[in-house]
Amino acid sequence: MILHGKAAQEDIDTTVQGTNTAYPTDGKLAxxxxxxxxxxxxxxxxxxxxxxxxxxxxxxxxxxxxxxINRRAKTKKALIRLRTLAHALIRELRRTLPGYTLFEHYQxxxxxxxxxxxxxxxxxxxxxxxATASPTSFCRRS
Length: 142
Prior knowledge:
single chain, mainly alpha, 53% helix
């Protein structure tokens, strides 16, 4: 690699590529928690009362235009419902996992998920589940 002279100017590529960074909104985190809990139950063959798959898809669509003045109420209701569904799945798995002797293994995850679900938009110490697969990208709001 040449650092000085005319040859160095020919080899420099200064293009910048953006990263695929998704900001972890509360709705996205609730959906992620629901999907994680459903995968956990399926992996261990735990029979669930409901998986809420269709309802989550409908609520995800309701979250899309949250800044539009006429859709704020619908978005707020959808977020509350998603949190309720996530809490219901956590409670159900807490009841059934001790029978499979897996509760101690996943207890740390359960505490993290409950902390994420209970946080409010204006909280100072927000917790997030990893939003991107790339460890080198950062989510920072100024």
